[in-house]
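In keeping with the milestone schedule agreed at the kick-off meeting, the structural modelling team has produced records for the first pair of proteins. Each record is given below as a sequence line and a structure-token line. The laboratory manager (R.T.) confirmed that both were archived under the project's standard naming scheme.
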Amino acid sequence: MDTPALVSSVLIANRGEIACRIIRTCRRLGIRSIAVYSDADARARHVRLADEAWHIGGSRPADSYLRIEAVLDAARRSGAAAIHPGYGFLSENAEFAEAVEAAGIVFIGPRAASMRKLGSKAGAKELMAEHGVPVVPGYTGADQDPALLRREAGRIGYPLMIKAAHGGGGKGMRVVREDAEFEAALASCQREAANAFGRDRVLLERYIEQPRHIEFQIFGDQHGGLLHLNERECSAQRRYQKVLEETPSLALDAALRERMGAAAVAAGRAVDYINAGTVEFILGADGQFYFMEINTRLQVEHPVTECVTGQDLVEWQLRVASGQPLPLSQEEIRPSGHALELRLYAEDADRGFMPGSGTLHRLELPAAEDGVRIDAGVDEGDAVTVFYDPMIAKLIVHAADRPAALAAMQRALAACHVVGTASNIGFLERLIDHPAVREARIDTGYLDRHLDEFLTRPEQPPIAVLAAAAALRLDQERDLAAAQAAGGPDPNSPWALADGWRIGQAGSQPMSLSWRQERYELAISGHAEAFDFSHAGARHVVRPTARTAQTLSFELDGRMHRLPARIGGDDLIIHFEGRRYVIGTPAPFGFEAAAVGAQDSLRAPMPGRIVQVLVELGAEVEAEQPLLVMEAMKMELTLRAPLAGTVAQLEARNGEIVEADALLVKLEARS
């Protein structure tokens, strides 16, 4: 029988890095790529990369990427032969899959019937149990009466997990450790589930202490073929959001991998699965594993599987959707090496991982070579908006073994720099260097239990960092002076040397450096080749010996140092003892207005929607007491009282959309 031809054109019903990722494979295969975009994404990277693009509505997802008819209309007008949903948005929506098929367009994903069986976590667990796939004890019933749910929680026993029955991505999930917490946790979980997925049904299940998160990539075709491409470990999570993914998992031996792989395939066969899917398991400390869910789409972390198998999973999706059989058999899947993935986000780890937004005035990422892969949805100059997930890029590395992959990831992170919005680069560097990660013993709750281990920072930059920053700055000034002199009448004039030399005295020049909004004034004596400076009453002697684009070698007070150090725009980026220091270079003696912030006021940290007001005007509150719940960038943020006092002014209203820095609550301090 002749092999069916690939679809000729694909409309990508998504945005950001996954849309760019799909476009890349379409271009390689000669398939016309069609993008869709919202008002906020009119100039987005995926729009620029696609062969053509169609506007589908307003900036909010509900006004664009979640509008089934708008997406289908763009597909009809563009003549798209197929639609790829990416991940998120409509990717796991059975109604969308049915509407695509009804329109005579190929849906690049599983059948709607399979999605319906798996769309409810409760129904999926029951189905898996019937087919012999291990499941965690819990309650999956349709009766959602709060009193009944509380009784069921008592039957299951604490700790337990409340989970949204429809959805994923860490949304609508709460761990409850005692009965007194249940009511508030249930209400919060149902609210978040309703906002994210349009349904507030939940299920309850036993919470497995210190579990590992192990998932298996499965693939099925239209001819009865079904296989897995081994596992990915995603145990490094914060608030149920994956932070680090890797394959293979050091928690699995060959026998356990075979059993879990067989269970993953059995789970797929239970729903007649076609195309790409991921079977997620919880692995207990005792080696027992339990079915968690099947994600009926391509996962964010699919690149690590691609790296170790040498396969393009988007190409597999396109071939299966076109009616072709799976490219390989189970026996032909032969993974090689070790791969890691980290997610670079516009978020501030030092402010509770507050999502950021703004223009990326500078975006430096490592070169895609020597086992490094970058999947990005933005370029320098693009904006990270408040309407969508704040992911900037995914950093993926592939090496012969895990130690080499960890080293490669460290180098990749050191080459990253973001200016214009917050980023989690420093947090990721501390994560990848942490013993729990290095020793592959991290579990899904480790980050939440020990977050301070990843956020603790020194109060002052070390002397070696100040010395390196000064050396880089002097080197920069020398190069600039030399370039200016080269264009003048006498390139060899000694007066062109930027060393602060004066007749009858040693050269001295002021240098201003800044770190974490603190300013450091140094008096430098000497020049780029040799100088000394004073700090905290001590004088330090620096002798730079070598510099490359990424490293600096120098002698400091008789001790040699070789540090990752480079110039990133107006910043000096220096790594010392496993930490990243971004040193600013303000003008010397420049005036900086003192930060003015009312300590008695609570303001919106970013644009968003007020989902719950927890206090009333005139109420007495304690410091750190929750006052409001706000939804922004697909997350619920709890805003707390900055001090103990009385609510003197209450500007927030349930359901209200607020701008960044809007006054929400003003307190009168308790005397």
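The second protein of the pair:
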Amino acid sequence: MVDALVSVVLEQLSSILIQEVQREVRLVVGVKNEIKKLTSNFQAIQAVLANAEERQLKDQLVKHWLDQLKDVSYDMDDVLDEWGTAIAKSQSKVNEHPRKNTRKVCSFMIFSCFRFREVGLRCRVAYKIKELNERIDGIVVEKNKFDFKSSKVEIKQLEHRKTTSVIDVEEVKGREMDKVKVMKMLLSESSQGPALRIISLVGMGGIGKTTLARLVYNDHVVETHFEKRIWVCVSDPFDEITIAKAILEALMGFAHNVIELQTLLEKIQSLIREKKFLLVLDDVWNEDSTKWEQLRNSLKCGCLPGSSIVVTTRNRNVANCMGSSSTDILELRLLSIDECWSLFSQLAFFDKNSRERGDLEDIGRRIAAKCKGLPLAAKSLGSLLRFKSRIEEWESVLNSQFWEIKEAESKILAHLWLSYYDLPSEMRQCFSYCAVFPKDFRFGRDALIKLWMAQGFLRETRNKEMEVIGRECFEALAARSFFQDFEKDEGDGSIYACKMHDMVHDFAQRLTKNKCFSVDIEGAAESKIDSFSRDARHSMVVFRNYKTFSFPATIHSLKKLRSLIVDGRPSSMNAALPNLIANLSCLRTLKLSGCGIEEVPSNIGKLIHLRHADLSGNLIRELPEEMCELYNMLTLDVSFCEKLERLPDNIGRLVKLRHLSFGNIWNNSFFVKVKGVEGLSSLRKLDEFHVSGSGEVSNIGDLRNLNHLQGSLKIRWLGDVKDPNEVKKAEMKSKKHLTRLDLFFQSRTDREKINDDEVLEALEPPPNIYSLVIGYYQGVIPVFPSCFNKLRVVELFKWGKIGNLPPLGKLPSLEELIINGMECVGKVGRGFLGLGVDGEDGEDSDISIGEMTSSSNTIITFPKLKSLSFYLMEEWEEWEGGEGGNEDKTNISISTIIMPSLRSLTIWGCPKLKALPDYVLQSTTLEQLEIYESPILEEEFEAGGKGWPNASHTPNITIN
């Protein structure tokens, strides 16, 4: 963690020296030498940091030395960031004015004004650098006393434990079902399965992976099923020769003196040929699959089918590298409350009489609950309390953090130290930052990544953006079991939210003690905050009852805070905010979501380090122009501010801004005036854009420079577009990273100027969108241009004037279709399937036929559609079948196949619909049919109704 911070400072110092050489920066006399000295000192410190970080576990003096180094590194980062920001802002202000005679005087004044201020700034920076150099000198002197080593040295406390297959089955609790699952995998004899099956047991340290592997390994059925059983403790590093020698020793029954890998593998092959074996590789860490390939290939050659390898690891990526299929990876669950209590109590109450047990059982159950299902914690605390009988001793354990308990520090958290030091240094600081959240806090992946970005933890490279690096870091921490309780996207299976286990949270707090804290405001708030160090850097304040508690004034004294996250609604936030901003000048993150804020004070423009401002869900009408001075801003969130009317006119000055949110999905009439957005060329995420059409603000053409936009974008037309060429100026086709587009046409008044048909035709949508939503379309022609052929998801709703649906059956990739609230549609016919000729039924045949096989003259409409839903179609009466052949213009008979992949059909709120078409009723792929608030269909398809025989073959039918 310190290593990453020192690296950032070294980068900044190096940049200043380069700028000075190139005459972009003028240094005060003597400062160049000060910077060179700082650089030299930091480089000397960096060389020994790995050794220092490990030694801090046993030596409190080393830990104190590291804390001092952190403080001076943070302070240096602030100074250099202030300087770099001032230089960059001056250059951008000069450059933003066009070189016209009318602007020369203005540009000169701005430039001269900055030069005047720069002199004072350079002198102030020079003084601070000299002061910091003196502090660093003292730290270097202390460093030399510790005799640190310049290379990473493993210490005993971090040694990986050696495991064996020995187990006392009676002591194991709660792994019966897991054992059954693994046994089933091991004993299944599939002729189509691999010759060598690799099963991985994955989970955080202390969850019981090795225990489960021992249970299986020692089971009598397993023992008789496999001719050879081998147990090898791998740990770190992954050494092929050591592992091969251990396998050979187990097979031969004695140690072998061979040291050549080739000879070892040949000998292993000869001993397992024509045999069925079980090999347990316990505690595997290495993610490099090439180190494992030779050994795996040797084991595969010649062994009988049914041979298996069981791998235990903390890292799902290791399981993938070892060759386990997704079905052969078992992620171990935490124990239940009862299982954890059973494991804890059998140790804690051993040899205690009934009276002692009665006095301590209530406290014991709460201690067991504190373990949150982690077997190692239950065993360690149970063993600790086995020889303690006084209530005060048990209450001390109950009320302590895990890292405050000596037994936990040496046994439980030791497992996490190993996992922590296996992380790259930049990933360590991302993990430790999570200590700012309270226990059991649910945090979203994308929100966490933005917080990491604001603190400078994610260093963008030429080939990878910060967001990509952040997502890789998040996924790596999740794979290594630092996170749990995953919430996953149903589509791609990615994790979008999670929590931390209490023990992992305590470990993170142990790493960040005095630097990172969260506090619940439920009473004596001031005294709670007074107990925290004035050198604290990150804080989260949680208000449990916003009607009762005011914002604590003592937060103002934590002047070095880089993160302030407020959860809840303090009663005095509006009054406290100006002073809060005035005092916390080091803030990188200010998160005040839903705090009842009515006005953002203008002094927010003084927070020159601010990268992340979340003011969402407040009562703000507008933001002060001073916010446009926040040159470093990466994320600005004012979404769900229902009173918000406009963004600052000079928002285009926020040239580094990557994420801008001001939408409100709950209010379709919500409109925010935005001017100057064309200057935000760094934007990666824009949730909504509101088109006024007035020619003064919020023109659709302002999107032209925003070609880095990613993910989804909603465009709302709340005014009239007078010229379709203005739509083309948006250059939507250049936004190749957008994957979803929502178009809302609404609140239009002057209908004759331009209709929605022309807008949609002129839009030229992004080339890679797979999801499209079009709402409140007021055109008269069901336009659907051919450039939408990659769509997989389409939703159309509230098309007020359309009587016939577009020919969506021609979309070759469409998988999900939702039609909602089409108030003028009375019939869904062949045109919807894309079978009509041009102009028939009022359709426009822009889209090419979905799929056609020329050899058989067969047209397939909706070839990939899996889910089809109709909602609130109150005038819809007829759904035409589209049966039979179709004659093309050359009189060649063409047969049709309709919706061959349909899995789900939902009809909701269609009171006049009389029947379903034959191609639905006769579908052999339909698995689910749901009919709600559609009385004619409900009567038709209820059990015993006229339509029931035609639909009864569908497995799941729901009629309301």
